[in-house]
Give the backbone structure.
Amino acid sequence: MLQVQHFQLIQRKDNRVLVEDLSFVVNDGEKVAIIGEEGDGKSSLLRWIENPAHIESYAEASGTCTVTGLVGYLSQELAEEEREIPVCEWLDAACGVESPSYAAIARTAKMLSLDPALLWETRSLGSLSGGERIKVQLASLLLRDCDILLLDEPSNDLDLMTVRWLESFLQRTDKTVLYVSHDELLLERTARAVIHLEQVRRKTISRATFSRKPYRQYIEERSASFAHQAQVAQFEQKEFREKKDRYLSIYNAVDAAQRNLSRRDPSTGRLLKKKMHTVQSLGRRLEKEQESLTETPEAEWAILPKIEDGVFVPNGRTVLDLRLDRLCIGDRVLAEPIRLNVRGPERVCIIGQNGCGKSTFLKRIERELIGRTDLSVGYMPQAYDDAFEPDDTPITFLAPNGDKASVTKARLYLGSMKYTTDEMEHSVRALSGGQRAKLLLLRLILQRNNVWILDEPTRNFSPLSAPAVRTLFASFPGTIIAVSHDRKMLREVATAVYRMDETGLFPVDRDEI
């Protein structure tokens, strides 16, 4: 069992309350998802439960946490020093004093669709693909036989096969699991309860909700409740305005009569004075009535800027006609041969198992297109740190020249995506993964790129933001070439899907995904 009482989280950087007075109980075997927009404290809540010391450098937390059983934590990102550790040494250290047996490792690797030899590798964790790193971390938790699993974005870098395994694992395991995920289908199929963290009124008020309902039911009932409340509020406001208009009409008429009253008519004056008292009493009742009106519901809705006019790729224009005898990393052949033809305004998505070379292929495509004078190419890497300088802030990243017009435009766009004034000046590296993903997306828009090369673009957007992101991608009048394992993106955005393996690149029926 896991019990949290009166949890409060304050961000030290700008003294902003992220979570206030959150209490909940997770029963044995429950699967509870933490949802919320980017930067609302989801990962920090998991880190605090695992060890309060892990967030002391950037946040102040209070509250109590009671845990029964062994806790295992899977971080969203490895620390720099952890990335240098050989896989075999890291696994030994993670599993504790007694090293796991070969049989246990082989059994766990099979569950993860992982080559057991990888768990004895002397290669560093940082040299593995993102999906391989996640699998190694999951393997350590399974080998330790943890009772409570705290998983921070476990599906982020997994291929489709392993995401399906993760779904199956969460559905059938008797372990207690508290997790953050941006995969909507995973949440719909596994989460039996929800912790929802929100920042409303331009991030000045925090709100936390615990609901022991499945994810889809919670979202649908919440949306229906908000729609009903908005309808009731609109009706009451309309009725109130009509009452207020009638009141003002009567008040103004009595007031005008009093001002125009002759001093020779005291009896009429007394009647008007009495009537004014009655009208003023009505006004006080209206003030009290206004306080009790149903409020228009507030929610942290996702907002994304629109693509500017004139950014498009003409229908049928050849964007890419790439033919490779083989795709390699050093002496290692990843795939051979590869053929890919893309025309405007297609949206092509590439899938494949972790480590098959999809990111390498995207970088090869970027090199192929970057010199084209008839195209404006933008690239969103999977490893965000590759795109930022150490001292970047959101403003300097989006307006590197620093001229007034560019800075003003950057602030306008950041504000539209709910960055606070303080967050615009924060170090990019101090922002959440989702906030950095928004910056990379904003750069594509501000640079007016008409060809977007995207490596796992939705992996760090919250499930509440993701529908808006998919709508933006689906309506993009340019060309998109992306690697993605987001099943909703593959079905709702892609006009063509290709599977990559060692034998090449092959079209896939989206209905089979």
